[in-house]
């Protein structure tokens, strides 16, 4: 499958899925090793970093360089790129090599590989791979959103529409009074906790209807998930309804809401 955004941007989606799987395999080698060998360090913002983060980044970065040598890469584990250098980017890859490092450390399986293509500050293609289950999600402009389970054909994802009883999904490690106040406006009958970008995938496949995040996230935490959710028919915006944009001067996201229409 070729994803075509313009004559200058044609990408083989199958190759992207292969890259995500290869990164996931690298992560699993560390994950399945003796936990004593999985040392954890901490970055300046006190977020955890494992050997698996670094291995996944190296796999993705080297493969994307071969696949799309003219498209720059912004990765959580890559070099810090000043806004003055990236502000004029038309296209770029926005990557979280291991989203849900805390879940990886807890060994609950709820971590993902996130790869997104951004065009003019908007995600137009997203890949999310779940290494432990082997489940792949992807979505893009004009191709829709899809889920591939092991040994199964791709299944197109469409959000559930016009429900009377809402299911909300939220973080396992972050919550706030602000989130509770906003969700009180909906008829929430069930709340589910999930790690990493899996929350966006749940919206896309209809197992949840709303995800509101007040606490801090980074652009690479949300880009792939936004693409998959939006191209399944969900809405992703700021709480006041403004478009959720990327490649900002600060890569720190403001609050957002992802929900069915």
Structure characterization notes:
The protein is α+β, with helices and mostly antiparallel strands. The chain has 7 helices and 16 strands. The chain has 2 domains: 2-157, Fructose-1,6-Bisphosphatase, Chain A, domain 1 (2-Layer Sandwich); 166-259, D-Maltodextrin-Binding Protein, domain 2. The strands form 5 sheets. Strands 5-6-7-8-9-10-11 form a 7-stranded mixed β-sheet, sandwiched between helices. The longest helix has 19 residues, at 13-31.
- Strand element count: 16
Question: What share of the residues does DSSP label as strand, in percent?
Answer: 25-35%
Approximate helicity band: 25-40%
Distance between the termini: 28 Å
CATH topology of the largest domain: Fructose-1,6-Bisphosphatase, Chain A, domain 1
What's the average pLDDT? 90
The radius of gyration over CA amounts to 17 Å
Low-confidence stretches: none
Number of helices: 7
How do the strands line up in the largest sheet? 5-6-7-8-9-10-11
Principal-axis shape equals globular
Annotated CATH homologous superfamily of the largest domain = Fructose-1,6-Bisphosphatase, subunit A, domain 1
N-to-C series of helices and strands: EEHEEHEHEHEEEEEEHEHEHEE
